């Protein structure tokens, strides 16, 4: 195998078991199961990119709110590694995800109106045990890496769309010790800003091996281009006679040899078609 595509999977970073979520009496998603493991590539430090696609209203945002602990599941568990505990028999003990553990960026890239970029990033680090000087150095390093240094004292209303997106992503990156969830981060963006967000994904992934990005999109080509693991969420008409979202299919693009390519091949296009066919039936 080309060494560029070699990888090894190790410890579990996210385990979703029999997850169901209802609003009142209405079940929105049901029996969602998935397990994602940390992936190591020779000579690289890299997080993963996981895409969730599905037709409108199938429950992607609901699933994401559960993944970030913003809503409580009706049943089932979302487990993440508990880094406060010692490793037992080679395994990091797991804990249930709680609000604040995981970064969440909504499609509007919401920012604090009354904080400058620098103040907002300092606020993101409020739980960190680091000293003020260490926090300052960390923020300045990231601002420089993300091309935001000159805008550090500006307020959200003074920022361009691209600067807002990068600030919102950076805020969550600094406050989260786990994966980050991005609900439709490419929605309504022009080609330039799509490229900016794609670059930001890379910066997040490369900053630490645990920095996994989980995102949803209606752009299936983009999902296949970026993801190394992809889930299709939709209605399984053969199982539920009412409309309840569940995971219909998982594509492990690493195992399929389709992850980390510089350009789209005919195999990528075939996968796009297969995903769209599943979605049309869901
Ligand atoms: N707070 C809520 N209370 C009641 N029903 C809700 C609530 N939020 C979402 N829903 C319903 O849950 C279903 C799934 O919505 P959700 O936003 O999770 O779907 P989605 O797949 O993200 O859709 P889209 O792709 O259009 O953003 C919809 O029928 C929606 O009306």
From TrEMBL:
<dbReference type="GO" id="GO:0005524">
    <property type="term" value="F:ATP binding"/>
</dbReference>
<dbReference type="GO" id="GO:0016887">
    <property type="term" value="F:ATP hydrolysis activity"/>
</dbReference>
<keyword id="KW-0547">Nucleotide-binding</keyword>
<keyword id="KW-0813">Transport</keyword>
<dbReference type="InterPro" id="IPR050093">
    <property type="entry name" value="ABC_SmlMolc_Importer"/>
</dbReference>
<dbReference type="Pfam" id="PF00005">
    <property type="entry name" value="ABC_tran"/>
</dbReference>
<protein>
    <submittedName>
        <fullName>ABC transporter ATP-binding protein</fullName>
    </submittedName>
</protein>
<dbReference type="InterPro" id="IPR003593">
    <property type="entry name" value="AAA+_ATPase"/>
</dbReference>
<feature type="domain" description="ABC transporter">
    <location>
        <begin position="14"/>
        <end position="260"/>
    </location>
</feature>
<dbReference type="InterPro" id="IPR027417">
    <property type="entry name" value="P-loop_NTPase"/>
</dbReference>
<dbReference type="InterPro" id="IPR003439">
    <property type="entry name" value="ABC_transporter-like_ATP-bd"/>
</dbReference>
<keyword id="KW-0067">ATP-binding</keyword>
